[in-house]
Amino acid sequence: MTIEFETPKPIAQQQYVLKTVADNMMRPYSRYFDENEHEIPWDYINFMHQAMKASGAGSLAPKDKKKEDPNKPKRPPIGYQMLAHMLEILSWGDTGMYLITPGGGLGAAAVQSAGTTEQKKKFLARFMGEKPTFAAMCMTEADAGSDTSKIRANAVLDEESNEWVLNGEKIFVTAGDKALTEYEESGQGFIVVWATIDPEAGRAGMRSFVVEAGTPGVKVMKMEHKLGIRASDTVTIVLQDARVPFENILGKSTVEKTTKGFKGAMATFDATRPLVAAMGIGVARAALEFVQEKLAEEGVEIRYGKPRNTLTSIERDVIDMEVMVRSAWLVTLKAVWMADNRKSNALEASMSKVKAGDVGPKVTQKAIEILGPLGYSREFLLEKWFRDAKITDIYEGTGQINRLVVARNLLGYRGSQLR
Amino acid sequence: MTIEFETPKPIAQQQYVLKTVADNMMRPYSRYFDENEHEIPWDYINFMHQAMKASGAGSLAPKDKKKEDPNKPKRPPIGYQMLAHMLEILSWGDTGMYLITPGGGLGAAAVQSAGTTEQKKKFLARFMGEKPTFAAMCMTEADAGSDTSKIRANAVLDEESNEWVLNGEKIFVTAGDKALTEYEESGQGFIVVWATIDPEAGRAGMRSFVVEAGTPGVKVMKMEHKLGIRASDTVTIVLQDARVPFENILGKSTVEKTTKGFKGAMATFDATRPLVAAMGIGVARAALEFVQEKLAEEGVEIRYGKPRNTLTSIERDVIDMEVMVRSAWLVTLKAVWMADNRKSNALEASMSKVKAGDVGPKVTQKAIEILGPLGYSREFLLEKWFRDAKITDIYEGTGQINRLVVARNLLGYRGSQLR
Amino acid sequence: MYSFEPNEEQQMLIDAVSRYAEDLREAAEEAEEHARFPEGLVEKGWEMGVLQASIPEVYGGFGDYSSVTGVLAAEELAYGDLPAALAVMTPNLFVLPILLAGSEVQKERFIPPVIEMEWKAYTAALIEPIFNFDPTELKTTAVADGDDFVISGKKTYVPYAKDAEMMIVYANVNGVTQGFIVPAGAEGLTVGEENKLMSMHALLQYDLELVNVRVPAENRLGGDFRAVLAASHVGLAALAIGVAKASLDYAINYAKDREVFGVKVAQKQAMAFMMAEMAMEIESTRMLTWEAAWKLDTEKEDAYKSAYLAATSAIDMVMMVTDRGVQILGGHGYIREHPVERWMRNGRGFATFTGLAIV
Amino acid sequence: MYSFEPNEEQQMLIDAVSRYAEDLREAAEEAEEHARFPEGLVEKGWEMGVLQASIPEVYGGFGDYSSVTGVLAAEELAYGDLPAALAVMTPNLFVLPILLAGSEVQKERFIPPVIEMEWKAYTAALIEPIFNFDPTELKTTAVADGDDFVISGKKTYVPYAKDAEMMIVYANVNGVTQGFIVPAGAEGLTVGEENKLMSMHALLQYDLELVNVRVPAENRLGGDFRAVLAASHVGLAALAIGVAKASLDYAINYAKDREVFGVKVAQKQAMAFMMAEMAMEIESTRMLTWEAAWKLDTEKEDAYKSAYLAATSAIDMVMMVTDRGVQILGGHGYIREHPVERWMRNGRGFATFTGLAIV
User: Fold this and answer.
1) Which of A35, B183, C273, D343 is the most buried (most CB within 10 A)?
2) Its pTM surpasses 0.90
3) Could you tell me if C275 and C328 are in contact, meaning their C-beta atoms sit under 8 angstroms apart?
4) Phi, psi at residue C157, to the nearest 5°?
């Protein structure tokens, strides 16, 4: 080991490719899909589907290990680092569009991390199919936001038919509409629904279920109108006596007096936090670079190296923005590097998420202020990036929830000791 | 009523007088008494004592009402407003020296607010005597800081001698040494000690007792070495079977199932919070004005009215400093105006304290940064003001405790609902 | 004396405006989504006569100009809805600069037609579509030519420019900003695109181009532009306070209502502290704004500076507060059903809105 | 590759320095109160050979210069005590600029005598006692005169100037900052008053006056001053991290130990959040600093800029963190028995300390 900051070659190559995607398939359409909230950017979706199929990627989730060539020198794993870079640059392109990239997102990731080999085969093959296909994760309920112990959706086993019967209402499901609605252009998707199989058991009774699009009793009830990331749909899903085969449960079907299963789910969140951070940082970098370009056009030079007292207000702002964006990114990189190297990264993961949640709104808002009347206008994408950036401070645990997680890890406290 | 910001004439006159005191009796000696921590500025003390005697003030505590001349038009009361201005400008001079202004400070204030007429006569007359005389308040204990319910000092009535026997240890007593030590130059002082007369009764059992200098069993154990406000002594006081006459208890000698007495004490704190805020603002204003003078000497103009983007970094800092100092002061003024007009000001009082606690450190530290190598040097008073200012965020309730108070008042929560 | 309570007359006005502001609040979401106010809403606000009450009788009004009163009313209006408040107050942009910096003749001639019972689009053009816009160093120029001034330049964020009967255009005269009364349809004056901004969709604002627009010298407001700028500073500060207060109150209600981990959201120390700080910063800015307005009314030497400090405070305060308003609602804050996201978008603009409100 | 772990050699150095830093911590309070380090303390640090290990053998050392290694060691030293760290590292101020910006001849001639086993006062003079000091636009000038340069100006914050055998004086040569090797006792060179600062009382620093001090042209470091400035930026950033980390760790221990309202102070959400944010900002600055040091070592194009960003981050971070360190201790934080107040005074100076540490 040593201290090093060289971008690995495969990542640099991927960055190059995705920059082209962002420049050509995302940015030119960003404004349109922001102004036309519930339209779907099929061009981008189809392009990404084909591109990923061609590259053999299939899904943005970390890949299973390839068979190793014993003659090749062993390289340290960079899967999460790769992913963080990909998400960062695609969000630099357009966070809303990125969020509906086909390939299964969090839904597929749940199957991959908690499913049996059989389940993986059954549910994940579709993402390499002819048409772009979506999956979504359904966790939040109206009365269960950060406090996931209050989930009320339930699954009852019908022993006669050997089916699970699901009831409940899930809100804030990202890409839920695309996962459930069978568009002409898309394959059959699914959602992964968190529900309790034993309401008395608290978190120990929580399980996740794969619910295929087309299942009777499952309905998309409401598409939210949002502040930002409008290219992605956020929906409410109602399950009314929705029946799924027994084998669609992810994890054990019996309840033991342990919250291991649930903690597993929470650990998945830990793993995804730096990835969410990366997305927020992508947006912030977009805004920073935009301001830097505009300032260069206006002939405004940023004099690095000067004491703060001798700077202009704008120089100081831009320098502070750079500090924020870069440091948030490095903290994120460290968190994914730890994940790749199987080091426990709960502290770093939540740190990166908090940082990105702070930095995105601050940097985008500063950018708007610096550009004045132009910054606030919908002529540029800056104001949109500001709206997009705020989501990072909110989803996958608000800044406050993540500060709690940071503090617990820092102080060595359990949840019961620091609420 | 109307909205008005004209400084009342009597206050303006007092400001003028105290400015002269600050300029001549405080500032020239500030550095000396900072560097020589436990020396006593008798010149200042004697001067203030004579000045206050001459003006009939006697004490900085709000005066009792004068007999009204029925022919004169009735004026709205301005006692607290006057006091806030006085403290602000004396702290602008030197907070440490202000804190040992003779006249009884918080100790005398406690007698004045909770004592009987007889007690007031007995204990307060001395402040108009030949020699400067001090009193101090003893509340905090090693294990009872913000959490006053944990006070362990106790008072037991010796029914034979009809004396209270006090035991306990009090820390962080401001001017405690001057209140208890009989210097050649000073009169006999006293301390007001908070103790429980019924350990089972919790806060309902808390009472305060006047303990005269010279009482056997009372000892100043330790004089603290502090970050700032070094001209004032902060001491630990130990009471070991210290006996005081029965009539030295302030308030009822019996315990009822009510915390009224204690709440009264807390209300006193509410009343003093804007005054503590005023002190912090005085220091901040000193630093701000010092920077403004230096910048003017250097030919640096602050271009008010310009959009932030067109400012220099220093202009922006100075403008922000002005905003902070002025707004904290206006919030404080409102709080004391409310007190004078008998409006409930718990919210405003704690707001002013939080603001001043934030503003003092921020403004003084910015001032240091702006003046660079000179700002950090002990050649100027700036670095001292920074050290002095920090106390505002700490004593009479830390910034965090006061935020709690603000939040409770804002949200309409009792202490039990928001801890 | 110090005193921190509106007088009786002001309190009555506050109460009346506050009732009207409830209508604004109710209409706000739809107005934003459809980029149009419901019929009669702005007119109803105008009919309350807030502006008229601050114009002396001799110019057709029925009161005296008071910056303090204007500030109190503006906060209440913005507590309802910022763009609607700006719409109701658009004629201020024309009337008050004339009152503050115009000649006796200009006041008598131009003010009375505006402050009639009916809201009419009289407006003003200050902001320019450039980087580092500075109202004290405008790029739009006015050059004396015989008895006329010839004005050229570009403007943006001009409310109701399309319908305006007359407007004030600010221009640079030898390094000094001066206002000029320009009639609609003046030769060389083109109303351009409707501005599409991050918020305030229902407040129609436009680009403006002036190519050698000629106005008689008597249309020039000869007074000190800094008085107008200061009236904008306190006006915007008051509006920012209103928006911030709206966001805080909404967040408080939400946080006291919603449970998380067995207690109310508001009972979480971190959340409670956030709200405490929001309240403190609102109060701080309000005090600065009141003092500045009072200084303007009493013609204190440093009144302009005070107004500037109030505006500076307001810009940062409203951003902090409205951001936290969204944050306290969490996921719900991001949904357009709740107004906090709209207030955050409003809040983001105050650094840019110079000249858009004058009280 | 990305990698975030010191290599084995670095880890051994960290461990060794960390043990020595415990001595520094123990001595710090008394050193500050008496304005003197205990006998042998600085020398003991010097004997660890951190500097020597980063000088190639050809110049008398036994290793290769690595900014990353220097940064790691500096954090550990400052975790013990900032002024002692600066004292131990004072000879760096003389040696490293020669290594970074000197000629081969200068390196061979001037470096070996300094890095012998004994700590000797070799130092450097950069800071000037003026408002708006800017290391890239010095007021001290050096003018070529025949084969010599003639240097005039005033300096301040020069560590151990009184005992220095030789020092580097930075001066403005036609708008460019350049270092000059100046021997003690050079004609025209006067060591003035001992500086009395807000903190670091035991680190003796002095004013310096130069009146037409003449040095041969061969004493001029001809290389790029920006390399020296960058080495100072990362050095100070690393020291700031050490001070901040010390404060956070102390606050954590205190808050986990002390009870209030029936729970530990650390269990209060507001307190816990404060510490979480302190940790995050420390980690953020550390990452920037490591990256900058790595860029310096690998000669990346934007290495100087990265170093500057790290220093900028460090200045604000260390102020925030050390202020909160005091705050978390409440009244106890204000008492000089606890080191948090000293760290806060240390922290306040980083905006000013440019050139006081070079790694």
Assistant:
1) D343
2) yes
3) yes
4) 55, 45
- The enclosing domain of D43 has a CATH number of 1.10.540.10
Structure tokens at C87: 């719409």
Q: In chain B, which residues fall in CATH 2.40.110.10? A: 111-256
B398–D334: do the CB atoms touch at under 8 Å?
no
A52-102 pLDDT per residue, tens? 888 765 454 445 555 556 677 677 899 999 999 999 999 999 999 999 999
List of chain D residues whose C-beta atoms are within 8 Å of the C-beta of residue A417: 267
Rounded CA separation A359/A353 (Å): 10
Structure tokens given for D44: 């003991």
Would you call A396 a catalytic residue per the annotation?
Answer: yes
Q: Are C170 and C101 in contact (CB under 8 A)?
A: no
- Look at residue C83 and tell me if it is in a domain: yes
In this model, does residue B91 exceed pLDDT 90? yes
Q: C329 and C269, same structural domain?
A: yes
Distance, in Å, from the CA atom of C59 to the CA atom of C54, rounded to the nearest integer, reads 10
Range of the domain at C13: 8-115
Question: Parallel, antiparallel, or unpaired for β A135-138 and A190-196?
Answer: parallel
Distance CA A404, CA D270 (A): 10
How many domains is chain C partitioned into structurally? 3
- Enumerate the residues of chain B whose CB falls inside 8 A of the CB of residue C132: 307, 309-310
Cβ–Cβ of B378/D198 closer than 8 Å? Answer: yes
Q: Which helix (H) or strand (E) holds B122?
A: helix B117-124
Closest listed residue to residue B335, CA positions, set B247, B263, B257, B276: B276
Range list of β-strands (E), A213-347 = 218-223, 234-245, 249-250
If one compares A264 and C108, the residue with the highest pLDDT of the two is C108
- pLDDT tens by residue, D310-356: 999 999 999 999 999 999 999 999 999 999 999 999 999 999 999 99
Report yes or no for ipTM above 0.90: yes
Residue C1 covered by a domain: no
In this structure, is residue D357 part of a structural domain? no
Identify whether residues D127 and D109 lie together within a single domain.
no
Please tell me the class of the A261-411 domain. mainly alpha
- Cβ–Cβ gap B410/C304 under 8 Å: no
Structural domain A111-256, CATH architecture: Beta Barrel (2.40)
Give yes or no for a contact between B396 and D207, defined as CB atoms under 8 angstroms apart.
no
pLDDT for res A253: 86
**What is the rounded distance in angstroms from the CA atom of residue B175 to the CA atom of residue B192?**
12
The 10s digit of each residue's pLDDT in B324-369 is 999 999 999 999 999 999 999 999 999 999 999 999 999 999 999 9
